[in-house]
Amino acid sequence: MSLIQLVGISRFYEEGAVNALDGIDLEIGPGEFVAVTGRSGSGKTTLLNLLGLLDRPTAGTYRWRGTPTEDMSERRRNRLRARSVGFVFQDSHLIPTRTVSENLELALRLAGVPRRVRRARAVAALERVGLGHRIDARPSTLSGGERQRAALARGLVHEPELLLCDEPTGNLDTSNAQRVLELLREAPPGGCAVILVTHDPGLAEQADRRIELSDGRVVADTRRLPSDGAARSDETPTGRRGRVLDFIDDVGLNVSRRPFRAFVSAFGTILAVGMFVYSVAMATTTSSRIEQVFDLLAATEVRLGAPPAFTAVREPAVEERVGRIPGVVDVGRTWEVEEKPMAAGEGPWAAPSRMVAVRAVSPGAVAFLKPDVDGDGFVEGDHAFGVPAALVGSVVAADAPVPIVPGSIIRLGGREFMVRGIVEDVQRNPDVLFQVLVPATTAERLWPDEGSAWELVVEVEVGTAETVAGLLPLAADPEQGDRLVAQTLPEAKNLRQTVTTQVDEFVVLLAGGLLVASVFGIASATMAGVLERRFEIGLRRALGMSRRSIAAMFLAETTLTGVLASLLGLVAALAIFLVVAGGRGWAPVIPLEVIVAAPIAGLGTGLVAGIVPAVHASRLEPVEALRR
Predict the structure, then answer these.
(1) Residue 586 domain flag
(2) How far apart are CA 611 and CA 616, in angstroms?
(3) What range defines the domain where residue 376 resides?
(4) Contact 158, 81 (CB under 8 A)
(5) End position of a domain, from candidates 483, 516, 531
(6) CB 486 within 8 A of CB 473
(7) Which segment of 160-169, 214-223, 494-503, 578-587 scores lowest on mean pLDDT?
(8) Could you write out the three-class secondary structure of 254-318?
């Protein structure tokens, strides 16, 4: 029985305008060595593509061992090509990121050869073509002749029934070309038919049979020697578990052997996941610290505001009365004096530069505010004797035309004040940074009856705020206290939760935006990789890989890249966060959810990013992909 039989095969392109093949009738038996010759454009490569099931005829019938291939499904054609057809191209098309042995093992994998015997089969095939010493070499280190012999070994390693060679000696010198031709006669297993397309008449004369094409038709078919052979026996194909492991190995090699491209495509995901993890960890840790500050500040704070008519609240004796309430740690009086023109400098000639808010504070009010002062701050005599001294808020100092520093003189309302310090920060009431603080006794001496927003500020022990707030109004003004209401800050915790929630939402939105950007980054890099690897895609299709497997391979590559990128971003973010937190003396708080979410986000990013490149790669026609 003939191995292959063509009956009336025609192949038209561009809606019949180009007849690459026109009514070909041909039979080739097992073991035949056939040379196909003809001028450029005569249809030689098209014939090879049809014989290798890389293309379909426009008309006619192609039978493989008596079975019409036109009726075969795409999956069956892929399987037949993988197990029974070998290819040797003019360019070796060795995958540059794989070793010579790995290139052969890929062909064996697609042919269904079990994993346990692939390495030995690859080594044996390489030794047959004289490359036993280059088993683990990369293709880039081989000479042109060695690469072509490696390609020949790959075409024969799975012991095909048909070996198709498209100008395999076209890029070789005479010596290497003759060596390849000798291997084509000696290396194929018994029963393997060899079809060699060549322009070299000398090489064609060495074949058992010579077919000449012209304008898509057979114009000559001559035999030099009779030939006979037997078909090879099939191997037990790889099982399902083995195919899954093979797929994982293949994808892993594709990613690991292209580390720079993988890093470039994954950079956006690394950045997105890293920012997300770092931000969430920082926000969570900050939230924990806010909780601590809340316990120390908000939970220990009680305020009592009173209009000027409540004179008892304004008197110094109020501090003694309130101080006797159980749980009170400190109490102070504070109010805002009318705005005063301020001049930076001493002497009556210092021109006022702006109007500033002046706040009067007793010693207890200063302790309550907990300011961070650059300088010595108020001394005891300032409060005792009403000394014209001041603490200047940092914003006020920064806006002054003349530098204001501790020890300098400023003028408020035409009066000179000694600057005791600059308030750089404050834990309570940030408005202080925009004000000038003066002792309460000084304000009462210089500006009597001026002021608004009179307030008692009380620091209490943790857990006593509500009790103190209930007793404070009557203690502050025994006669009218029932008309006053003291305020604690239970809403501060809700405020903290609101702020933390908003920070978390911002972090999620930021990370989401970065992840979307990383999807486009991975997709564009992968699409560029598809174009760069189009020859590899064509080769894999020629070796029997299905369109579905091509798509799955690229999709798995982008998914693996996304997961690895997310893990790298996670590790980097945690390392940076721990360094920052440790440097500030914070107790780091890292939510378990964010550690779990990071690889999931990377997986989703890679999966979405790989869809378009995977579909594009699967739609590449092998004939076009292999064509330069």
Answers:
(1) yes
(2) 9
(3) 311-483
(4) no
(5) 483
(6) yes
(7) 494-503
(8) HHHCCHHHHHHHHHHHHHHHHHHHHHHHHHHHHHHHHHHHHHHCHHHEEEEEECCCCHHHHCCHH
The predicted-structure confidence for 231-248, as pLDDT tens digits, reads as follows 444 455 556 677 788 888
Asked whether residue 69 falls in the same domain as residue 200, the answer is: yes
HEC readout, 499-559: HHHHHHHHHHHHHHHHHHHHHHHHHHHHHHHHHHCHHHHHHHHHCCCCHHHHHHHHHHHHH
Which CATH number goes with the domain that contains 18?
A: 3.40.50.300
The CA-atom distances, in angstroms, between 342 and each of 357, 360, 361, 413, 414 are 10, 16, 19, 7, 8
Its pTM stands at 0.63
Say if 86 falls within a structural domain.
yes
Same-domain check for residues 46 and 129: yes
Question: Cα separation of 136 and 150, whole Å?
Answer: 12
Q: Is 335 helix (H, G, I), strand (E, B) or coil?
A: strand
Contacts of 109-113 with CB under 8 Å at 24 or more apart are 109/238, 109/246, 109/250, 110/82, 110/540, 110/543, 110/544, 110/545, 111/82, 111/83, 111/158, 111/235, 111/543, 111/544, 112/79, 112/82, 112/83, 112/235, 112/237, 112/238, 113/158, 113/235, 113/237, 113/238
- pLDDT mean over 35-56: 90
Whether 372 shows a pLDDT value over 90: the answer reads yes
Q: Quick count: other Cβ atoms within 10 Å of Cβ 516?
A: 14
If you write DSSP's letter for every residue of 170-212 in order, what string do you get?
TTS-HHHHHHHHHHHHHSSPTT-EEEEE-S-HHHHHTSSEEEE
Task: Record the tokens describing residue 245, joined without a space.
Answer: 């492991």
Residue 495 predicted with pLDDT over 60: no
Provide the number of structural domains found in the chain. Answer: 3
Is 305 a member of any domain?
Answer: no
> Which of 483, 512, 534 is the C-terminal boundary of a domain?
483
pLDDT digits (tens, 9 = 90+) for 413-427: 889 999 999 999 998
pLDDT single digits (tens) 6-35: 999 999 887 656 788 999 999 999 999 999
Q: Which two tokens stand for residue 107?
A: 């062909």
Average pLDDT in the 306-316 region? 84
In this structure, are 89 and 119 located in the same domain? Answer: yes
Quick one: 212 and 273 in the same domain?
no
> Quick check: 378 and 439 in contact, CB under 8 A?
yes
Dist CA 71 CA 51 (whole Å): 15
pLDDT at 287 over 70: no
Integer-rounded Cα radius of gyration of the chain: 43
Cβ neighbors of 278 (< 8 A, separation 6 or more) are 573, 574, 576, 577
